[in-house]
Amino acid sequence: MAQKRKSKERNNRKTKLQKLNPEEPKEEPEEEVTNELTDMPTLTKGRWKNKQKVLVFTSRGITYKGRHLVNDLRNLMPHTKTDVKMDRKSDLLMVNEICEIKSCNKCIFLVGKKKRDVYMWISNVPHGPSALFHVEYLNMMEELKFTGNCLKASRPILSFDSKFDDSPHMKLLKELFIQVFGTPNFHPKSQPFVDHVFTFSLMDGKIWFRNYQIVEENGELVEIGPRYTMTLSRILSGSFGGPILYINPDYQSPNLVRHLEKKSSTKYVDNKAAKIDKKMRRSDKTFAADETDQVFDTNLTAES
How many whole angstroms separate alpha carbon 122 and alpha carbon 127? Predict the structure, then answer.
């Protein structure tokens, strides 16, 4: 009973106060302060669906430029993996098993021959196709020292020459380059920015690779590096094997080029002509000795 009386007294007091002050100012809700750094919405709202993984490694006997090219490609392509050097005597089909162990479905394999020539295999593992290129005019980022720069794991724009759409084999190479060099969208290791361009140009029967930084929105570009050219040798239907789909008729191996240059050189003929010219300029006449030259010779005077 005592508790009921107390509750009634409290209610009576509240009603009296409301009658005395019928219009009380309502408290305005305080504005919530948001932190721009911590409360920013995430940029990558999508899912990583295109799970392309590229294995980039070399064979033994590769030149130092080939090793630096692997490092540059790994810095530019966040969806790559690497492995130890493979023995040159091993079968190329072993590369498919290495890619399977590394959970990669694309491969860039550099092969060095005679400590001067660099070949590049680009393959779709394990069903193919695969293409073999001869790499020339290779220059790395550190060697060029260009002013261009880009984020380490940003996604590139792939720019292709219009000649890639002229023939079936070039269309095949274009699709292969897109799958290998293009960073998948929403990749965990990639940055959600686009600040550089990979260009593939066709000139003089070679594919010219360049990497440019996008400086301004109006399309101004500054080269970053690396730069190199690729001469197509052949395209195979399988991964590092299988029937040949295309052979480049204009391709000449470096050994054949060096042999033709040596055969067509006139070094031997020039040496023979130089010897004959030297004999012609040499005179057979000898001049008589002057008797007064021995006047101041002390040895002759002592003997006499």
Answer: 13
> 229 pairs with which residues across the strands?
136, 208
CB 195 within 8 A of CB 150: yes
| Contact of 33 with 39, CB cutoff 8 Å | no
Contact at 8 Å (CB) between 53 and 182?
A: no
The amino acid that residue 218 corresponds to is N
> How far is 66 from 138, CA to CA, in rounded Å?
8
Give CA–CA dist 58/66, Å, rounded: 8
Local confidence band at 217 (pLDDT 50, 70, 90 cut-offs): confident
User: Cα(256)–Cα(6) distance, rounded to whole angstroms?
Assistant: 111
Contact 157, 219 (CB under 8 A): no
The pTM for the full model equals 0.70
Cβ 192 vs Cβ 43: under 8 Å: yes
